[in-house]
Amino acid sequence: MKRAIFPGSFDPITLGHYDIIKRSVKLFDEVIVAIGINADKKYMFSLEERLRFIEEAFKDEPKVSVVTYKGLTVDFCQKNNVEFILRGLRNPADFEFEKAIAHTNRDLAPIETVFLLTAASTSYISSSIVRDVIRNNGDYTKLVPKSVRVK
Length: 151
Ligand code: ADP
Known about the structure:
Blueprint: E1 3-8, H1 15-24, E2 30-36, H2 47-57, E3 64-69, H3 73-79, E4 84-89, H4 92-108, E5 112-117, H5 127-135
Adenosine-5'-diphosphate (ADP) binds next to helix 1 and strand 4.
EC number: 2.7.7.3
Catalytic activity: (R)-4'-phosphopantetheine + ATP + H(+) = 3'-dephospho-CoA + diphosphate
Cofactor: Mg(2+)
């Protein structure tokens, strides 16, 4: 049973995340989208909203589940028999950042990090750009799954 975790803040989930998750379903038996809880970070969307956006986006995909977690990703993996950490790569900056995290995680536990290169059509999308568009009343709906709606 190949089980992967896709950790992140998902504030909110974007079409970039959506693309990575959709494609990863072909590689793994189970994909756990895991929203990390960081008490020091300020979020635009509450934990409940972020969870609901992802659950709704994948309601027809039985291999995808959504959880929240605190602490180290590798600890979550070891407690839940997860062998793979999934991450998306958009550009060289992502690669450098992700490389350091992946090496650290490998030092901490025998868990492989698997990288998927973003689709060209969503490579420019980030949650922070989506939040900026929302704050400035722009049309964010082209950048996120249909489940993400601002009241
Ligand atoms: P974090 O706070 O951990 O960076 P994010 O929610 O921003 O959380 O990202 C989670 C994962 O999704 C990371 O691996 C990130 O590189 C990847 N990701 C973010 N945006 C995109 C995108 N447009 N295409 C592909 N992967 C992406």
